[in-house]
Specification:
Length: about 525
C-alpha cells in the first residue's frame, strides 16, 4: 500500500523551531524521489518525532549563545578546604547593600563567626570574621572591580573557636524572626549580585509569590562550583528552598538545572523524596527539577523566569512582580546553614581554573582570603598568564593582580592564556545584526551603541540601554570585536550622573524657595 506523501508530511511543522529537522527533511526528499517509498521514510519520521518530544522537555529562552563550556572539574570531584598561606584575611567591610561601619578596632581579638561590621540600614548585610585571630589593620585594599575598599585584616591565631548563633527552627519561628536570622547571618546573593537576601524575601505585602526558582544554571564557562555544591550538599539546598517557600508562602519550588548537568537530577530527586517522606512544614516541600537548555545566559533572572514558568518580567521590573523569587543554589545552602547550624556567611565556595591554571579545582575559602596567598601552595600556575578574572569570563572583572580577597559573591577566579582571551583591535561595525539576534533581552545593541556615539542619551534609553543586563553576549558574537557592553556600562553611569545632577539642582531650587 502506497502512502501519499503530501497527506502525511504536514502533520509535523518544524519551520522556525527546529532548523535541523528542516535540513533532514530537505535532504530526504531527493532520496524519496529516486528510491520510492521505503522503510527509511518511517524510520526518519519516527526519529524526528522522538527528537521533537525530547526537545520539548527542555526549557529555554529566545536569543543567547553557547560559548565553549571549558568546565574542567566534574561535580563529583573533591572540594578542597583552603587557607591563605599568610594566615591573614582581608575582609571587605561592605559586601552588599548600604555601607557598613567597622565594629572592631586594630588590636582587637575576634572569633570566627563574630560580627565585625554592620549598619542599621534595612538594605544591608553585616560582615563576620571568617577566622579567629587579631585585627591587624583596617585600611583600603584592592577588591574585585579594581577599586580599593575598606577592609579589616585579621591575622589568624592559635585559637580556633567559633561564635555561631544558636540553631533556630525556621518552621516554628515567626516570619519576622526568620528574616532577622537571615540578615544577622549576613547572607547576600551568591550568584554574583550580592543583594541582601532578607530584602529579596520581603516583597510588598500585595505581591503574591507563586514560585521559588532555584538557580542551578551556572551558565558561565569554566565555573562549576555550584555543580559541586549541588552534588555534595543536595539536602541542604533543598532544605534552604523549603525554608524560603515557608517564609514567602510560595506553593511551588523549582530547581532550574541546565541539561549539561542532568546527571544531578537523580541526586536532587532523592533529596526531594526524603523531604516528602519527612515534611518539614505544611506546603513547603512541593519541589521539582526542571531541565533548561545549556545556553548562556540561562541563569539570568529574566531568562530563567521566561524559560521555566513562562512569565515575562516587565521592563525595569523585578521577579516578584510576576510571582517569582529566584535564589542561587549556593545561597539556599547558606540559608539552611544559618538556621540549622547558626552559621553566618563566612566561607565561600569557588572555582579556580583557566588555561594557565595547572590544577583546576573547586575550593572553599574563608571570606577575605587573598588569591595571591593561594599561589603556589594551592594553585599552581603555568607560564603565560595573560588575564586574571574575578568571576566568569562573560561578566567577571579583569584584575590587575591576584592580590584581591574572596568575597561573598566570588564565584570563581580564572587565569587565562593568550589563546583564551580576545585582544583584537576593534573594527567598524558591519551592520550584521548578530548582536540583535543573540541579545537575551531582545534589545538592539547596534542602535544603542550608535545613539551613545552620537551622544543621544534619550535615544539610547529608548532602544533599551537601562534594560541591558550586561551579560556580554553582544561583545562576544560581534565580528568587529566592538566592546559593546563596556560602552553600555559607561553610558549607564553617565545617565545616572546626569540624573543625580538634575536631582541636586531641583533640591537646590526647592531650598531656595
Amino acid at each position: 500500500m502506497r502512502i501519499r506523501w503530501r497527506h502525511r508530511l504536514p502533520i509535523f511543522d518544524f519551520s522556525g523551531v527546529f532548523p535541523r529537522f528542516i535540513q533532514l527533511y530537505r535532504a530526504f526528499i531527493p532520496a524519496r524521489r529516486r528510491n520510492g517509498y521505503s522503510h527509511a521514510v518511517f524510520f526518519l519520521t519516527e526519529k524526528i518525532v522522538l527528537l521533537y518530544n525530547k526537545s520539548m522537555s527542555t526549557k529555554s529562552f529566545k536569543g543567547g549563545c553557547h560559548p565553549p563550556e571549558r568546565k574542567a572539574i566534574s561535580a563529583e570531584s573533591e572540594v578542597l578546604t583552603v587557607m591563605p598561606s599568610s594566615k591573614m584575611v582581608w575582609i571587605p567591610v561592605t559586601q552588599g547593600g548600604a555601607p557598613n561601619t567597622p565594629l572592631v578596632k586594630v588590636g582587637d581579638t575576634v572569633v570566627r563567626g563574630q560580627k565585625i561590621a554592620e549598619t542599621d540600614k534595612f538594605m544591608s548585610a553585616p560582615v563576620h570574621a571568617s577566622i579567629s585571630g587579631t585585627v591587624k589593620k583596617i585600611e583600603p585594599h584592592l577588591v574585585t572591580g579594581n577599586t580599593d575598599a575598606l577592609c579589616i585584616a585579621i591575622q589568624a591565631g592559635e585559637d580556633t573557636s567559633e561564635a555561631f548563633m544558636e540553631p533556630l527552627d525556621p518552621f516554628t519561628c515567626t516570619k519576622e524572626d526568620a528574616l532577622k536570622r537571615i540578615r544577622e547571618a549576613g547572607i547576600t546573593g551568591m550568584g554574583g549580585a550580592s543583594f541582601p537576601v532578607h530584602v529579596k524575601l520581603s516583597p510588598p505585602k500585595d505581591a503574591k509569590i507563586d514560585y521559588i526558582l532555584g538557580n542551578a544554571a551556572e551558565c558561565e564557562p569554566y565555573l562549576c562550583t555550584d555543580a559541586a555544591s549541588m552534588y555534595h550538599s543536595t539536602e541542604a539546598i533543598i532544605d534552604g528552598m523549603a525554608i524560603i517557600m515557608h517564609i514567602t508562602g510560595a506553593g511551588k519550588g523549582i530547581i532550574a538545572l541546565e541539561d549539561n548537568k542532568k546527571q544531578l537530577v537523580p541526586v536532587f530527586q532523592k533529596a526531594i523524596a526524603k523531604i516528602k517522606e519527612n515534611p518539614v512544614g505544611a506546603g513547603a516541600y512541593d519541589i521539582s527539577v526542571e531541565l533548561c537548555k545549556t545556553k548562556y545566559p540561562q541563569g539570568g533572572e529574566k531568562n530563567l523566569t521566561a524559560a521555566v514558568v513562562g512569565r515575562e518580567i516587565p521592563s525595569g521590573g523585578l521577579p516578584f512582580q510576576v510571582g517569582c523569587i529566584i535564589q542561587n543554589v549556593g545561597t539556599m545552602k547558606a540559608i539552611s546553614d544559618a538556621f540549622r547550624k547558626g552559621k553566618p556567611l563566612i566561607d565561600r565556595p569557588l572555582t579556580i581554573s583557566g588555561g594557565a591554571c595547572e590544577n583546576p579545582l573547586n575550593a572553599v575559602a574563608p571570606i577575605g582570603t587573598c588569591i595571591s596567598d593561594l599561589i603556589p601552595d594551592v594553585v599552581r600556575l603555568k607560564p603565560g598568564v595573560t588575564k586574571i578574572i574575578s568571576g566568569g569570563p562573560m561578566m567577571g572583572f579583569a584584575m590587575k593582580s591576584a592580590d584581591f580577597p574572596v568575597q561573598k559573591n566570588t564565584s570563581g577566579v580564572l587565569f587565562l592564556t593568550r589563546e583564551e582571551v580576545n585582544l583584537d583591535e576593534e573594527s567598524p561595525c558591519i551592520g550584521c545584526g548578530k548582536c540583535v539576534s543573540h541579545c537575551s533581552c531582545q534589545l538592539s545593541p547596534v542602535l544603542m551603541i550608535r545613539a551613545l556615539k552620537a551622544n543621544k542619551m534619550e535615544e539610547a534609553v529608548r532602544c533599551g540601554l537601562m534594560d541591558c543586563v550586561e551579560c556580554g553576549i553582544c561583545s562576544y558574537v560581534c565580528p568587529a570585536r566592538i566592546k559593546l557592553v563596556q560602552r553600555f556600562k559607561v553610558g549607564k553611569q553617565l545617565l545616572r550622573e546626569a540624573k543625580q545632577k538634575e536631582a541636586a539642582k531641583a533640591a537646590a531650587a526647592q531650598g531656595g524657595r
